[in-house]
């Protein structure tokens, strides 16, 4: 018995000593929704190539990811590297939380292999490069071909057509007096700004930083409000619906259309087979707007071993590894070679993404963007949907936020 | 008196002085670890919060810590969301606690009766109280779900409603739905406390009352209620403070939405500080709420003081 204890203790010590023998440790924060998390495989492969570096990767829940990251930065306990989105960049740069990666980038072979323009798109507000892209998506319209065929409908290309089609698709299919299918699954909770933006920011002269309170801008918000209040084409739970709800409702046949990106395509195909297709979002107010969903990695300013940290993040954006990474997230690789050999998603979804690229835009590189995404948009939109305030008031509040 | 006796007496005096000193110091020595920990993890952050509330302190500009005096408080008092949150907080506390108390009282009275499987029932009743808040919140989000929730299914089948109600997405129902959840979560605490109080009432009182011909209602009014009044009062005060401070269930269920329909003051302070990173303003809201709550705390301390004396 005693001998067993001693043996156990000795092996524990040996393990600790083995772990501690690595020269540096890279603490990495990321967020994956996918339960089949391939991060361990990537880490094992990386550590085999770099025996002097240990990677401690931590999957942080998405809902509180940025709350935790900012608090950790302030508390002096930030990770060495983190997955980051563009909307957070101005704030992180202002906090002095990021390290410029320009010097490493200029010496890195992989830089030329990245998709064109991605480094320009992710450039920092002060001209330095802080972000290294790791995946991207573009939002488009998902729809159920069978429901469209049954009613003889065409996929809408303008907001006017969208409204007509959504109204037709909203119906009681079994005659019990209850609506069984709704035209569109609208995301009224946090993260739904992309839906609203597609209906609002396409209008000429309207953006988050300019012209939002104009007649054209308000018309977009009013359009969304009318779809819910007058037409009833969103499920009644729309004001509180988040990602899980809109995707769940679409898969269950409760909604006929919704907006999301290729990240959910495989799950949809698994649930619906061929009965799910994609198209670019409709043109509203004379133009189209869809969200370019970015994800990068960054070396944090407090990284203990910046060189090792850079090695790790550049590893994730290198040929082959980037494909493995994106197979888990279900998004699209940033490395051209991985993109060319990409076969993870059915072609129709890749096509919708490519077709949407020309008018895909990112949220403004402003300090106000984080508040817009996290609190201002969700509360204002919910208030409009539930009739608490008018569309104009919402647009004015957002315009004021960006004007500050 | 001989020399020997004098030496003996002085030694005895010294010993008794040392014993007295020891007795005086010992309680402080024993209490000091707990006091020190409380000072470090409760009192220090409290002072820090009060200090931050007097500054313009936004976390993503960590180097700016400008003194603004009472500006944050002035902003709060003219902030529409502050008043909406205060109103919701009053409704929320004013209905949740009496509902928990009533349900707890009825449950305790039932559990005090003789029936088979009583120990099992007593153990089961504690489940809502023992479950983590996040689990409760997620469970009830599913119960209230407008597409698949059992609440709608049940009411539709009973013919009580004609259309599914989006319980948490409709501002008219959202707060009430959360209050129901919190009532369910908190009533076992009252049930257990009141049950303990009930068991402390001597059976002979009831026997005497029965001999005098007192009805069950009069027995309840004149024996049971006075017997458990003290326990009930303490439980209500404790629960007031706990409920006032908790926002986890609301945060998980609605995040304060739709709009501001389920915003309460602690939740608003949390969102301002943690999501918007505006620690100055968030602290000011927390301080204002603490001052309101202080009235309850003072009342509680006076009560416990009386009980001790």
UniProtKB/TrEMBL annotation, chain A:
PANTHER family: ARABINOSE-BINDING PROTEIN-RELATED, DIACETYLCHITOBIOSE BINDING PROTEIN DASA. It is found in: Periplasm. Belongs to the bacterial solute-binding protein 1 family. GO terms for cellular component: periplasmic space. It comes from the Bacteria. The keyword Signal applies. Its main location: periplasm. This is Carbohydrate ABC transporter substrate-binding protein, CUT1 family. It comes from Roseivivax sediminis. Keywords: Signal. InterPro entries: Bact_solute-bd_prot1, SBP. Residues 1-22 form the signal peptide. The lineage of its organism: Bacteria, Pseudomonadati, Pseudomonadota, Alphaproteobacteria, Rhodobacterales.
UniProtKB/TrEMBL annotation, chain B:
The keyword Secreted does not apply. It comes from the Bacteria. Residues 86-300 form the ABC transmembrane type-1 domain. GO terms for cellular component: plasma membrane. Pfam families: BPD_transp_1. It is a multi-pass membrane protein. Keywords: Cell membrane, Membrane, Transmembrane, Transmembrane helix, Transport. InterPro entries: MetI-like, MetI-like_sf. The chain crosses the membrane at residues 25-47, 90-111, 123-143, 173-198, 219-242, 279-301. It is found in: Cell membrane. Its main location: membrane. Belongs to the binding-protein-dependent transport system permease family. This is Carbohydrate ABC transporter membrane protein 1, CUT1 family. The lineage of its organism: Bacteria, Pseudomonadati, Pseudomonadota, Alphaproteobacteria, Rhodobacterales.
């Amino acid at each position: 018995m005693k001998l067993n204890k001693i043996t156990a203790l000795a092996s524990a010590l040996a393990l600790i000593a083995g772990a501690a023998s690595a020269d540096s440790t890279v603490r990495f924060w990321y967020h994956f929704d996918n339960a089949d998390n391939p991060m361990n495989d990537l880490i094992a492969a990386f550590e085999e190539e770099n025996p002097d570096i240990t990677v401690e990767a931590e999957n942080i829940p998405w809902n509180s990811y940025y709350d935790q990251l900012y608090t950790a930065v302030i508390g002096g306990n930030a990770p060495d590297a983190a997955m980051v989105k563009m909307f957070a960049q101005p704030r992180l740069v202002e906090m002095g939380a990021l390290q410029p990666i320009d010097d490493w980038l200029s010496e890195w072979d992989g830089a030329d292999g990245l998709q064109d323009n991605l480094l320009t798109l992710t450039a920092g507000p002060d001209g330095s490069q802080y972000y290294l892209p790791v995946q991207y998506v573009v939002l488009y319209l998902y729809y159920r071909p069978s429901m469209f065929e049954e009613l003889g409908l065409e996929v809408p290309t303008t907001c006017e057509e969208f409204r007509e089609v959504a109204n037709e698709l909203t119906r009681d299919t079994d005659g019990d007096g209850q609506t069984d299918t709704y035209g569109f699954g609208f995301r009224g909770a946090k993260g739904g700004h992309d839906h609203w933006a597609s209906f609002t920011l396409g209008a000429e002269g309207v953006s988050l930083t300019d012209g939002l309170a104009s007649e054209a801008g308000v018309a977009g918000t009013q359009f969304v409000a009318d779809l819910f209040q007058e037409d009833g084409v969103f499920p009644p739970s729309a004001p509180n619906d988040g990602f899980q709800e809109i995707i769940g409702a679409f898969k269950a046949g409760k909604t006929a259309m919704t907006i999301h990106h290729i990240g959910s395509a495989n799950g949809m195909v698994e649930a619906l087979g061929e009965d799910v297709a994609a198209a670019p979002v409709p043109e509203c107010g004379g133009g189209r707007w869809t969200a370019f969903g970015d994800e990068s990695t960054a070396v944090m300013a407090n990284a203990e071993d910046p060189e090792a940290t850079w090695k790790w993040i550049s590893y994730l954006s290198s040929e082959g590894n980037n494909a493995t990474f994106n197979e888990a997230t279900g998004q699209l690789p940033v490395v051209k070679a991985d993109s060319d050999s990409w076969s993870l998603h059915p072609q129709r979804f890749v096509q919708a993404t490519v077709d949407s690229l020309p008018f895909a835009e990112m949220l403004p590189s402003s300090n106000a963007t984080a508040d817009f995404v996290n609190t201002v948009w969700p509360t204002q939109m919910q208030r409009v949907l539930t009739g608490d305030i008018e569309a104009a008031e919402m647009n004015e509040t957002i315009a004021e936020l960006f004007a500050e | 008196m001989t020399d020997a006796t004098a030496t003996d007496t002085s030694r005895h005096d010294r010993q008794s002085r040392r014993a007295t000193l020891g007795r005086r110091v010992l309680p402080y020595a024993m209490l000091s670890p707990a006091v020190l920990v409380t000072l470090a993890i409760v009192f220090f952050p409290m002072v820090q919060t009060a200090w931050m509330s007097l500054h313009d302190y936004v976390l993503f500009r960590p180097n700016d810590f400008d003194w603004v005096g009472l500006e944050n408080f002035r902003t709060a008092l003219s902030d529409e969301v502050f008043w909406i949150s205060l109103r919701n907080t009053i409704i929320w506390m004013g209905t949740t606690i009496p509902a928990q108390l009533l349900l707890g009282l009825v449950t305790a009275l039932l559990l005090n009766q003789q029936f088979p499987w009583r120990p099992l029932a007593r153990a089961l009743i504690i489940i809502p109280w023992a479950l983590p808040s996040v689990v409760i919140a997620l469970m009830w989000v599913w119960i209230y779900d407008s597409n698949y929730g059992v609440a709608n299914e049940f009411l539709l089948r009973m013919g009580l409603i004609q259309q599914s109600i989006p319980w948490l997405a409709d501002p008219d129902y959202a707060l009430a739905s959360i209050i129901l959840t919190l009532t369910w979560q908190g009533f076992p605490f009252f049930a257990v406390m009141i049950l303990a109080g009930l068991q402390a009432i001597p059976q002979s009182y009831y026997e005497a009352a029965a001999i005098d011909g007192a009805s069950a209602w009069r027995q309840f009014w004149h024996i049971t209620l006075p017997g458990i009044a003290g326990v009930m009062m303490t439980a209500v005060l404790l629960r007031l403070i706990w409920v006032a401070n908790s926002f986890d269930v609301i945060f998980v269920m609605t995040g304060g939405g739709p709009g501001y329909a389920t915003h309460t003051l602690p939740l608003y302070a949390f969102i301002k500080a943690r999501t918007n990173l505006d620690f100055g303003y968030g602290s000011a809201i927390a301080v204002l709420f603490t001052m309101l709550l202080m009235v309850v705390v003072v009342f509680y301390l006076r009560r416990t003081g009386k009980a001790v004396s």
